[in-house]
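Standup notes, structure subgroup. Blocker cleared on the phosphoenolpyruvate input:
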Amino acid sequence: LIILLHLDAGPAERAAVRAALQRLGLAIEEARLGERTTFWVSGADVPAESLARLPGVERVVPVGSRSPLVEATRVPGGRPVSVGGATFGGGHVAVIAGPCTVEEPGALRDVARFVARAGAAALRGGVFKARTSPHAYQGGGTSALRELHAAAREVGLPCFTELTDPRQVAEVAEWADGLQIGARHMQNVPLLVEAARTGKPVLLKRHMSADVDEWLLAVEYMLKTGNERIILCERGLRSAERHVRYLLDVGVVPWLKQRIGLPVIVDPSHSAGDWSLVAPLARAAIAAGADGLIVEVHHRPETTRCDAQQALPFNDFARLVQDVRALAALDGRGLSGAPAREPPPLQAAAGA
Ligand code: PEP
Ligand code: MN
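Run returned:
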Protein backbone atom coordinates (compact mmCIF):
# COMPACT_ATOMS: atom_id res chain seq x y z
CA LEU A 1 0.00 0.00 0.00
CA ILE A 2 0.97 3.63 -0.30
CA ILE A 3 1.09 5.96 2.68
CA LEU A 4 0.60 9.57 1.70
CA LEU A 5 1.81 12.16 4.17
CA HIS A 6 0.10 15.51 4.53
CA LEU A 7 1.39 18.20 2.17
CA ASP A 8 2.85 20.07 5.16
CA ALA A 9 4.33 17.05 7.00
CA GLY A 10 7.81 18.00 8.20
CA PRO A 11 11.05 16.00 8.63
CA ALA A 12 10.16 14.96 12.20
CA GLU A 13 6.83 13.44 11.15
CA ARG A 14 8.50 11.76 8.19
CA ALA A 15 11.12 10.19 10.46
CA ALA A 16 8.47 9.05 12.95
CA VAL A 17 6.42 7.32 10.24
CA ARG A 18 9.55 5.67 8.86
CA ALA A 19 10.53 4.45 12.35
CA ALA A 20 7.03 3.06 12.98
CA LEU A 21 7.15 1.13 9.70
CA GLN A 22 10.60 -0.21 10.51
CA ARG A 23 9.43 -1.39 13.94
CA LEU A 24 6.75 -3.41 12.16
CA GLY A 25 9.43 -5.02 10.00
CA LEU A 26 7.82 -3.83 6.75
CA ALA A 27 9.68 -3.31 3.48
CA ILE A 28 9.46 0.39 2.69
CA GLU A 29 10.47 2.70 -0.06
CA GLU A 30 10.25 6.47 0.34
CA ALA A 31 9.32 8.47 -2.75
CA ARG A 32 8.30 12.01 -3.61
CA LEU A 33 4.92 12.34 -5.21
CA GLY A 34 4.64 15.89 -6.43
CA GLU A 35 4.90 18.01 -3.32
CA ARG A 36 4.37 15.12 -0.92
CA THR A 37 6.31 12.36 0.71
CA THR A 38 4.98 8.85 0.26
CA PHE A 39 6.01 5.49 1.64
CA TRP A 40 5.37 2.43 -0.53
CA VAL A 41 4.96 -0.42 1.90
CA SER A 42 4.89 -4.15 1.30
CA GLY A 43 4.79 -7.15 3.59
CA ALA A 44 2.32 -9.59 5.07
CA ASP A 45 -0.38 -8.33 7.47
CA VAL A 46 0.21 -4.63 6.98
CA PRO A 47 -1.93 -2.90 9.68
CA ALA A 48 -3.41 -0.32 7.31
CA GLU A 49 -5.88 1.14 9.80
CA SER A 50 -3.33 1.87 12.51
CA LEU A 51 -0.87 3.27 9.95
CA ALA A 52 -3.57 5.67 8.79
CA ARG A 53 -3.73 7.12 12.32
CA LEU A 54 -0.01 7.97 12.59
CA PRO A 55 0.66 11.72 12.93
CA GLY A 56 1.49 13.28 9.57
CA VAL A 57 -0.33 10.60 7.58
CA GLU A 58 -3.11 11.84 5.38
CA ARG A 59 -4.20 8.58 3.79
CA VAL A 60 -3.30 4.97 3.26
CA VAL A 61 -4.06 3.73 -0.25
CA PRO A 62 -4.18 0.08 -1.28
CA VAL A 63 -2.25 -0.51 -4.50
CA GLY A 64 -4.64 -2.82 -6.27
CA SER A 65 -5.50 -0.49 -9.09
CA ARG A 66 -3.55 1.18 -11.85
CA SER A 67 -4.57 4.60 -10.59
CA PRO A 68 -4.07 4.51 -6.81
CA LEU A 69 -4.04 8.30 -6.43
CA VAL A 70 -7.44 8.57 -8.09
CA GLU A 71 -8.67 5.82 -5.80
CA ALA A 72 -7.32 7.72 -2.81
CA THR A 73 -9.63 10.62 -3.59
CA ARG A 74 -12.53 8.44 -2.48
CA VAL A 75 -13.08 9.82 1.00
CA PRO A 76 -16.39 10.37 2.81
CA GLY A 77 -18.17 13.30 1.16
CA GLY A 78 -15.75 13.24 -1.77
CA ARG A 79 -13.28 15.97 -2.62
CA PRO A 80 -15.31 18.93 -3.83
CA VAL A 81 -13.42 21.49 -5.88
CA SER A 82 -14.10 25.20 -5.49
CA VAL A 83 -13.22 27.81 -8.07
CA GLY A 84 -14.13 31.25 -6.78
CA GLY A 85 -17.75 30.95 -5.65
CA ALA A 86 -18.34 27.83 -7.78
CA THR A 87 -18.27 24.53 -5.93
CA PHE A 88 -18.33 21.25 -7.82
CA GLY A 89 -19.24 18.21 -5.72
CA GLY A 90 -19.94 17.68 -2.04
CA GLY A 91 -23.64 18.29 -2.64
CA HIS A 92 -23.07 21.33 -4.87
CA VAL A 93 -23.90 21.46 -8.55
CA ALA A 94 -22.19 24.22 -10.56
CA VAL A 95 -22.89 25.34 -14.10
CA ILE A 96 -20.14 26.81 -16.27
CA ALA A 97 -21.55 28.70 -19.24
CA GLY A 98 -20.41 30.96 -22.02
CA PRO A 99 -19.45 31.04 -25.66
CA CYS A 100 -17.38 28.38 -27.38
CA THR A 101 -14.91 31.09 -28.26
CA VAL A 102 -14.34 34.68 -27.15
CA GLU A 103 -15.12 36.87 -30.15
CA GLU A 104 -16.26 40.49 -29.62
CA PRO A 105 -15.63 41.83 -26.09
CA GLY A 106 -18.95 43.71 -25.95
CA ALA A 107 -20.93 40.59 -26.82
CA LEU A 108 -18.96 38.55 -24.32
CA ARG A 109 -19.95 40.98 -21.58
CA ASP A 110 -23.62 40.55 -22.51
CA VAL A 111 -23.29 36.78 -22.35
CA ALA A 112 -21.47 37.01 -18.99
CA ARG A 113 -24.16 39.25 -17.53
CA PHE A 114 -26.93 37.01 -18.72
CA VAL A 115 -25.47 33.68 -17.59
CA ALA A 116 -24.52 35.15 -14.20
CA ARG A 117 -28.07 36.36 -13.62
CA ALA A 118 -29.49 33.05 -14.82
CA GLY A 119 -27.48 31.18 -12.17
CA ALA A 120 -24.22 30.12 -13.82
CA ALA A 121 -21.39 29.72 -11.32
CA ALA A 122 -18.56 30.31 -13.80
CA LEU A 123 -17.95 31.80 -17.24
CA ARG A 124 -16.34 29.81 -20.05
CA GLY A 125 -14.77 31.06 -23.27
CA GLY A 126 -12.16 29.55 -25.57
CA VAL A 127 -9.16 31.66 -26.59
CA PHE A 128 -6.67 28.96 -27.60
CA LYS A 129 -8.94 26.64 -29.53
CA ALA A 130 -8.12 23.00 -30.19
CA ARG A 131 -9.61 22.77 -33.70
CA THR A 132 -9.65 19.63 -35.78
CA SER A 133 -8.92 21.65 -38.93
CA PRO A 134 -5.97 24.04 -39.27
CA HIS A 135 -8.21 26.17 -41.49
CA ALA A 136 -10.81 26.72 -38.77
CA TYR A 137 -10.73 29.76 -36.45
CA GLN A 138 -8.01 29.14 -33.86
CA GLY A 139 -9.15 31.60 -31.18
CA GLY A 140 -8.33 35.15 -30.14
CA GLY A 141 -5.26 34.31 -28.00
CA THR A 142 -3.85 36.67 -25.43
CA SER A 143 -6.15 39.63 -25.97
CA ALA A 144 -9.23 37.38 -25.84
CA LEU A 145 -7.92 35.85 -22.61
CA ARG A 146 -7.84 39.28 -21.00
CA GLU A 147 -11.33 40.03 -22.26
CA LEU A 148 -12.60 36.80 -20.75
CA HIS A 149 -11.03 37.71 -17.42
CA ALA A 150 -12.48 41.23 -17.50
CA ALA A 151 -15.98 40.03 -18.42
CA ALA A 152 -15.94 37.43 -15.66
CA ARG A 153 -14.73 39.91 -13.04
CA GLU A 154 -17.38 42.42 -14.07
CA VAL A 155 -20.11 39.95 -13.12
CA GLY A 156 -18.25 38.41 -10.18
CA LEU A 157 -17.76 34.95 -11.72
CA PRO A 158 -14.61 32.85 -12.00
CA CYS A 159 -13.63 31.91 -15.56
CA PHE A 160 -12.46 28.76 -17.31
CA THR A 161 -10.52 28.53 -20.53
CA GLU A 162 -8.75 25.83 -22.46
CA LEU A 163 -5.03 25.56 -23.00
CA THR A 164 -3.48 23.47 -25.72
CA ASP A 165 0.26 23.81 -25.16
CA PRO A 166 2.51 23.81 -22.06
CA ARG A 167 3.90 27.16 -23.26
CA GLN A 168 0.50 28.77 -22.59
CA VAL A 169 0.31 27.61 -18.98
CA ALA A 170 1.89 30.58 -17.20
CA GLU A 171 -0.19 33.13 -19.08
CA VAL A 172 -3.48 31.26 -18.82
CA ALA A 173 -2.90 30.59 -15.12
CA GLU A 174 -2.44 34.32 -14.60
CA TRP A 175 -5.78 35.28 -16.15
CA ALA A 176 -8.06 32.26 -15.73
CA ASP A 177 -9.41 30.76 -12.53
CA GLY A 178 -9.86 27.27 -13.91
CA LEU A 179 -7.73 25.61 -16.60
CA GLN A 180 -9.52 23.45 -19.14
CA ILE A 181 -7.78 20.61 -20.93
CA GLY A 182 -9.85 19.61 -23.93
CA ALA A 183 -10.71 16.19 -25.29
CA ARG A 184 -8.00 16.39 -27.96
CA HIS A 185 -5.30 16.96 -25.34
CA MET A 186 -6.32 14.41 -22.70
CA GLN A 187 -3.11 12.46 -23.20
CA ASN A 188 -0.82 15.45 -23.72
CA VAL A 189 1.25 14.56 -20.68
CA PRO A 190 3.53 17.65 -20.55
CA LEU A 191 0.38 19.81 -20.71
CA LEU A 192 -1.35 17.80 -17.96
CA VAL A 193 1.66 18.05 -15.69
CA GLU A 194 2.41 21.73 -16.29
CA ALA A 195 -1.24 22.71 -15.86
CA ALA A 196 -1.55 20.74 -12.63
CA ARG A 197 1.69 22.17 -11.27
CA THR A 198 0.13 25.63 -11.18
CA GLY A 199 -2.04 24.37 -8.30
CA LYS A 200 -5.07 25.85 -10.06
CA PRO A 201 -8.23 23.79 -10.58
CA VAL A 202 -8.00 21.79 -13.80
CA LEU A 203 -11.03 20.61 -15.75
CA LEU A 204 -10.03 17.52 -17.72
CA LYS A 205 -12.26 16.41 -20.54
CA ARG A 206 -12.40 12.80 -21.62
CA HIS A 207 -11.03 12.14 -25.10
CA MET A 208 -13.77 11.11 -27.54
CA SER A 209 -12.19 7.67 -27.87
CA ALA A 210 -10.72 7.16 -24.42
CA ASP A 211 -11.82 4.39 -22.12
CA VAL A 212 -12.25 5.20 -18.45
CA ASP A 213 -8.89 3.72 -17.43
CA GLU A 214 -7.04 5.94 -19.91
CA TRP A 215 -8.95 8.95 -18.63
CA LEU A 216 -8.20 8.12 -15.00
CA LEU A 217 -4.51 7.60 -15.77
CA ALA A 218 -4.42 11.10 -17.23
CA VAL A 219 -5.92 12.29 -13.91
CA GLU A 220 -3.29 10.22 -12.11
CA TYR A 221 -0.53 12.24 -13.87
CA MET A 222 -2.05 15.43 -12.47
CA LEU A 223 -2.62 14.11 -8.95
CA LYS A 224 1.00 13.02 -8.92
CA THR A 225 2.04 16.68 -8.97
CA GLY A 226 0.25 17.14 -5.65
CA ASN A 227 -2.65 19.10 -7.15
CA GLU A 228 -5.93 17.51 -6.17
CA ARG A 229 -8.21 20.21 -7.58
CA ILE A 230 -9.18 18.16 -10.63
CA ILE A 231 -12.65 18.12 -12.21
CA LEU A 232 -13.48 15.39 -14.73
CA CYS A 233 -15.72 16.20 -17.67
CA GLU A 234 -17.55 13.67 -19.86
CA ARG A 235 -18.22 15.21 -23.30
CA GLY A 236 -19.33 12.30 -25.47
CA LEU A 237 -17.66 9.49 -27.36
CA ARG A 238 -17.05 8.62 -30.97
CA SER A 239 -19.53 5.89 -31.85
CA ALA A 240 -21.46 4.22 -34.66
CA GLU A 241 -24.21 6.79 -34.12
CA ARG A 242 -24.47 9.60 -36.69
CA HIS A 243 -27.49 11.54 -35.39
CA VAL A 244 -25.63 13.07 -32.47
CA ARG A 245 -22.17 14.60 -32.72
CA TYR A 246 -20.75 12.38 -29.96
CA LEU A 247 -22.53 9.75 -27.87
CA LEU A 248 -22.85 10.99 -24.30
CA ASP A 249 -21.77 8.34 -21.80
CA VAL A 250 -24.30 9.14 -19.08
CA GLY A 251 -23.56 5.85 -17.33
CA VAL A 252 -19.98 6.82 -16.64
CA VAL A 253 -21.21 9.53 -14.24
CA PRO A 254 -22.70 7.25 -11.55
CA TRP A 255 -19.97 4.67 -12.27
CA LEU A 256 -17.27 7.22 -11.42
CA LYS A 257 -19.20 8.75 -8.52
CA GLN A 258 -19.26 5.31 -6.87
CA ARG A 259 -15.51 4.91 -7.22
CA ILE A 260 -13.73 8.26 -7.00
CA GLY A 261 -14.05 11.37 -4.87
CA LEU A 262 -13.32 13.96 -7.55
CA PRO A 263 -16.14 15.95 -9.11
CA VAL A 264 -17.53 14.73 -12.43
CA ILE A 265 -19.31 17.16 -14.73
CA VAL A 266 -20.85 16.82 -18.18
CA ASP A 267 -20.59 18.85 -21.37
CA PRO A 268 -23.94 18.36 -23.13
CA SER A 269 -23.05 20.88 -25.87
CA HIS A 270 -20.19 19.07 -27.56
CA SER A 271 -21.89 15.71 -27.23
CA ALA A 272 -25.17 17.00 -28.69
CA GLY A 273 -23.76 19.15 -31.47
CA ASP A 274 -27.30 20.53 -31.73
CA TRP A 275 -28.73 23.17 -29.42
CA SER A 276 -32.15 21.48 -29.25
CA LEU A 277 -30.58 18.39 -27.64
CA VAL A 278 -28.52 20.28 -25.06
CA ALA A 279 -31.16 20.69 -22.34
CA PRO A 280 -32.40 17.07 -22.39
CA LEU A 281 -28.82 15.75 -22.21
CA ALA A 282 -27.98 18.21 -19.44
CA ARG A 283 -31.01 17.10 -17.43
CA ALA A 284 -30.03 13.45 -17.90
CA ALA A 285 -26.54 14.25 -16.62
CA ILE A 286 -27.78 15.98 -13.47
CA ALA A 287 -30.29 13.20 -12.82
CA ALA A 288 -27.40 10.72 -13.14
CA GLY A 289 -25.50 12.58 -10.40
CA ALA A 290 -23.18 14.93 -12.30
CA ASP A 291 -21.63 17.64 -10.12
CA GLY A 292 -22.10 20.26 -12.78
CA LEU A 293 -22.25 21.17 -16.44
CA ILE A 294 -20.27 23.14 -18.97
CA VAL A 295 -22.63 24.61 -21.54
CA GLU A 296 -22.06 26.74 -24.63
CA VAL A 297 -24.34 29.78 -24.64
CA HIS A 298 -24.38 32.60 -27.18
CA HIS A 299 -26.31 35.85 -27.58
CA ARG A 300 -26.72 35.31 -31.33
CA PRO A 301 -25.80 31.70 -32.07
CA GLU A 302 -26.08 32.14 -35.83
CA THR A 303 -23.21 34.65 -35.84
CA THR A 304 -20.53 32.72 -33.95
CA ARG A 305 -17.49 31.36 -35.78
CA CYS A 306 -17.30 28.23 -33.71
CA ASP A 307 -19.86 25.53 -32.79
CA ALA A 308 -22.82 27.69 -33.83
CA GLN A 309 -25.27 24.77 -34.17
CA GLN A 310 -24.90 23.74 -30.54
CA ALA A 311 -24.90 27.20 -28.91
CA LEU A 312 -27.83 27.55 -26.55
CA PRO A 313 -29.82 30.80 -26.87
CA PHE A 314 -30.28 32.86 -23.68
CA ASN A 315 -33.86 31.90 -22.85
CA ASP A 316 -33.18 28.21 -23.20
CA PHE A 317 -30.18 28.52 -20.91
CA ALA A 318 -32.19 30.31 -18.22
CA ARG A 319 -34.82 27.56 -18.35
CA LEU A 320 -32.15 24.89 -18.21
CA VAL A 321 -30.67 26.35 -15.02
CA GLN A 322 -34.09 26.26 -13.39
CA ASP A 323 -34.41 22.59 -14.35
CA VAL A 324 -30.92 21.85 -13.01
CA ARG A 325 -31.84 23.49 -9.72
CA ALA A 326 -35.00 21.38 -9.44
CA LEU A 327 -33.28 18.12 -10.40
CA ALA A 328 -30.38 18.71 -8.01
CA ALA A 329 -32.86 19.37 -5.20
CA LEU A 330 -34.40 15.94 -5.76
CA ASP A 331 -31.33 14.35 -4.24
CA GLY A 332 -30.66 17.04 -1.69
CA ARG A 333 -28.12 19.02 -3.70
CA GLY A 334 -28.00 22.74 -4.31
CA LEU A 335 -26.97 24.97 -7.17
CA SER A 336 -23.61 26.56 -6.43
CA GLY A 337 -22.85 30.21 -6.96
CA ALA A 338 -26.38 31.01 -8.09
CA PRO A 339 -27.67 34.41 -7.10
CA ALA A 340 -30.62 34.30 -4.74
CA ARG A 341 -31.98 37.33 -6.57
CA GLU A 342 -34.80 37.49 -9.08
CA PRO A 343 -34.58 35.28 -12.18
CA PRO A 344 -33.43 37.04 -15.36
CA PRO A 345 -36.04 38.32 -17.78
CA LEU A 346 -36.78 35.73 -20.42
CA GLN A 347 -35.67 37.73 -23.41
CA ALA A 348 -32.36 38.04 -25.16
CA ALA A 349 -30.07 40.85 -24.02
CA ALA A 350 -28.34 43.34 -26.29
CA GLY A 351 -27.54 42.34 -29.83
CA ALA A 352 -30.48 40.01 -30.39
C1 PEP B 1 -14.67 23.28 -26.07
O1 PEP B 1 -15.00 23.16 -24.88
O2 PEP B 1 -14.87 24.32 -26.72
C2 PEP B 1 -14.08 22.10 -26.76
C3 PEP B 1 -13.29 22.26 -27.81
O3 PEP B 1 -14.46 20.92 -26.25
P1 PEP B 1 -13.86 19.44 -26.45
O4 PEP B 1 -12.44 19.49 -26.01
O5 PEP B 1 -14.75 18.61 -25.56
O6 PEP B 1 -14.03 19.09 -27.90
MN1 MN C 1 -16.97 24.43 -28.62
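Discussed briefly. The pocket of manganese (II) ion (ligand 2) is lined by residues 100, 270, 296, 306-307 (CB under 6 Å).
Next: hand off to the docking folks.
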